[in-house]
Design brief:
The protein is of the alpha/beta class. The protein is built from nine helices and five strands; from the N terminus they run βαβααααββαααβα. Strands 2-3-1-4-5 form a five-stranded parallel β-sheet. Helix 1 packs across helix 9 and helix 3 packs antiparallel against helix 5. The termini are close together. Bound molecules: adenosine-5'-triphosphate.
């Protein structure tokens, strides 16, 4: 079973992923993989230096993600060149992880960009997490994020309707963590049935 997990910023994706892990799933964190493929020795690292030059390196020889982001976000052409490097490297790494696991494993792919990147057809099922906007903002403030940063990130989000349209399972995370765990367990039981 390959489950896509997504939702808007601060909805509780990571918390749901952790609960699914506790129930026995293997969780692949898309953001972590995108970072991993740019580490020294990885294919993405070599390709980024080849394409963007060693000006994107920090003094330790690692890719300076902030410098790279500044470079590509000013220029759509450069951004798509970076995506052409990162995307296949992520796909290959995810395939490698999945191939190393028994077929019976439930693998959860946790990605904020499932809808934006139209990944829904890759999965057997999609689980979308929702929470009311004010609750999400408050949880992110409690996590230490600045309100201006939260608003900026929220401005780039797809709508709840677009998310719901690709979902097989929906969890509304407006209540307690125990309530969330109960709902995650229900989804898990349906996946395992
Ligand atoms: P991001 O989009 O930033 O990656 P996310 O969707 O992964 O966020 P989480 O990090 O899981 O969301 O949750 C946001 C914050 O809210 C975390 O600090 C988490 O512990 C907290 N949280 C999530 N669900 C609940 C809940 N039901 N009750 C209380 N706190 C919660």
């Amino acid at each position: 079973m390959y489950l896509g997990l997504s939702g808007g910023i601060g909805c509780g994706k990571s918390t749901v992923a952790k609960m699914l892990f506790d129930l026995g799933a293997v969780v692949i964190d898309a953001d972590a993989i995108a970072k991993e493929v740019l580490e020294p020795g990885q294919i993405g690292y070599e390709n980024v230096i080849h394409k963007f030059g060693d000006g994107v390196l920090d003094t330790s020889g690692n890719i300076d993600r902030k410098k790279l982001a500044e470079l590509v976000f000013q220029d759509a052409g450069q951004l798509s060149q970076l995506e052409e490097i990162v995307h296949p490297a992520v796909v290959a790494r995810v395939a490698q992880i999945r191939e190393s696991l028994p077929n019976t494993t439930t693998v959860v792919y946790d990605t904020p960009l499932l809808v934006e990147k139209q990944l829904q057809n890759q999965f057997d099922s999609v689980l979308m997490v929702f929470a009311d906007l004010d609750i999400r903002k408050q949880r992110l403030v409690d996590r230490g994020l600045e309100m201006a940063d939260i608003e900026a990130r929220l401005a780039n989000q797809v709508s709840d309707e677009q998310r719901a349209a690709v979902a097989d399972f929906v969890i509304v995370n407006n209540g307690s963590l125990q309530e969330l765990r109960d709902n995650v367990t229900k989804v898990w039981q349906q996946l395992s049935a």
